[in-house]
TrEMBL record:
Keyword check for Metal-binding: no
MF terms in GO: glutathione dehydrogenase (ascorbate) activity; glutathione transferase activity
Organism of origin: Setaria italica (Foxtail millet)
The keyword Phosphoprotein appears for this protein: no
Single biological process term from Gene Ontology: ascorbate glutathione cycle
Protein's name in the database: GST N-terminal domain-containing protein
Catalytic reactions on record: L-dehydroascorbate + 2 glutathione = glutathione disulfide + L-ascorbate; RX + glutathione = an S-substituted glutathione + a halide anion + H(+)
Assigned protein family: Belongs to the GST superfamily. DHAR family.
InterPro entries documented for this protein: DHAR1/2/3/4, Glutathione-S-Trfase_C_sf, Glutathione_S-Trfase, Glutathione_S-Trfase_N, Thioredoxin-like_sf
Annotated Pfam families: GST_C_2, GST_N_2
Amino acid sequence: RWPLLAARSPFVSRDRAASSPAPTASGELGMAILLRGTSAAAAATAGPSSTLLATTFRRARGCGRLLPAAPRLRRAFAARASAQPLEVCAKESITVPGRLGDCPFTQRVLLTIEEKHLPYDLKLVDLANKPDWLFEMNPEGKVPIVKLEDKWIADSDVITQALEEKYPEPPLATPLDKASVGSKIFSTFIGFLKSKDPSDGTEQALLDELTSFDSYLKDNGPFINGGTISAADLSLGPKLYHMEIALGHYKNWSVPDSLSHVKQYMKSIFSMDSFVKTRALPEDVIAGWRPKVMG
């Protein structure tokens, strides 16, 4: 059985967190988090699990019975605190061994898990030297894959839907009429990135999509589903992160200041704790897109 790297959510008991060594690094799912779990200080500031577990039941006055007292959402969080962690396989960094790689689809899955406050164990895979066990879990040898109810699931669309169905609280589903907002940005970004002809219209195609998204956010934002983060944001955010880094490096290009709502959207998404913990290193994003640019 392959070894698991611990990447617990903040919802761990304080006793358990206190027994973990303190992290030696921070940010972007640092190996202190991957290998050693969450520090006591982090758990104390971020994890209400021990409080939730302590208040899930209260003793009735004058008798020995235990009466449920926690609301539904609090009970759900408390249950997750003691649940078995999900097993997740993801791409390893190609620039810094032992760090999370540059796949935006993997980050989408990890963002979903983080935003649902689920514990998980992360196994990083060197995709240049895929181990045999990976093909046993997914015959296509692709990641991300997540184990749910003793079954390995592939494809970020399928994984995030399965997570939403199994763990409906807090809800992240995006209404169907909003689910496709911004969905063409990624493909137009790739077209512009690969282009070697400045006059072929690929830059304008990307600008058109970003302008449309800016108008949408102006009327409906700050997020795709209004005031709350939803699955569509967790899908689009990593793609915009790749767009910003790759186009900045290879094209010296950035989102125009005139698209202020898009820029604020990116700033808000990129500054989320869950995003900072699961984002790829910029050098991995640059290296990951190099074949597209050079090819």
